């Protein structure tokens, strides 16, 4: 069977099963084989490569669909997840992505991916005209609903409802993308590929919802849009209290410490960093150390 016939057959199968698509463990064999093929034939379309991969490796279509949904506990949706060899987990709350271990973290310039990367915990990106690298994939996790959503399909991932956009592509340069919004978790996952549309569906298959694990939130999560005016030199406790509330919602414990950098008048009360860092996946009940810029006497805003 020719590559073209394999690609045509794969496309028909994917369309027939799209409605029941429920991602399971990350399809690492497919990704690794596609990566090897991409290096050999950068000018060929991913559909042809995927057809060859499926024929050579005899991967069942169920690998793309994932396991059947099971009814999660009402107070803790999702399923129990363990990190697999050759992968790494990153997340925002219980919404996780399981990516190959050689993917970078936040490898972007001015919001444009420069390598296969997970983007998590980033609040602001500088603006410039940096181009996106060719033939790279990215997954961005962030809290909140997108300002706009294109046409979506209702799906369930690990028993949790999600609205998934239809994949759209632009040409010159090629960029295909789709977003998945989890309304109950208030998390958005954006999958982008400068390869082609088929790769976006493969990327979305990495998304999971865990009942036993959570991603450490970024320090800006939960911060009110309007904060009280801090007392000069004394800072405000509002950002810290908002962040501690967010940790509690996720079942995480907090230990607050003054920053080892000491007092800085304009930064009193600022949440400097966390350990583990934002996006790291930990079991529920884990401790997160939060460092805060102290007052001149070393105390923290209250």
Helix content: 10-25%
Q: What is the number of domains?
A: 2
Largest sheet: 8 strands, mixed
Low-confidence stretches: 16-23, 39-74, 224-229
Q: Please tell me how large the radius of gyration is.
A: 21 Å
Strand/helix succession: HHHHEEEEEEEEEEEEHEEHEEEE
Give the strand tally.
18
Q: How widely separated are the two ends?
A: 71 Å
Number of helices: 6
Shape by Cα distribution: globular
Mean pLDDT figure: 77
Task: Give the helix/strand class.
Answer: alpha+beta
Query: How much strand?
Result: 25-35%
Structure description:
The protein is α+β, with helices and mostly antiparallel strands and 302 residues long. The chain has 2 domains: 3-211, no CATH class; 216-302, Trypsin Inhibitor V, Chain A, CATH 3.30.10. The protein is built from 6 helices and 18 strands. It has helices spanning 3-17, 28-40, 46-57, 62-65, 197-204, 238-249, and strands at residues 87-92, 95-100, 104-105, 108-109, 112-113, 117-120, 137-143, 152-157, 160-165, 168-170, 175-182, 187-193, 207-209, 213-215, 253-258, 271-275, 281-283, 287-292. The strands form 5 sheets. Strands 3, 6, 7, 8, 9, 10, 11 and 12 form an 8-stranded mixed sheet that branches. Strands 1-2-13 form a 3-stranded antiparallel sheet. Strands 15-18-16 form a 3-stranded mixed sheet, with helices on one face. A hairpin with a 2-residue loop joins β1 (87-92) and β2 (95-100). α1 (3-17) packs across α3 (46-57) and α2 (28-40) crosses α3. It is globular, with a radius of gyration of 21 Å. The relative contact order is 0.13. Residues 16-23, 39-74 and 224-229 have low confidence and may be disordered.
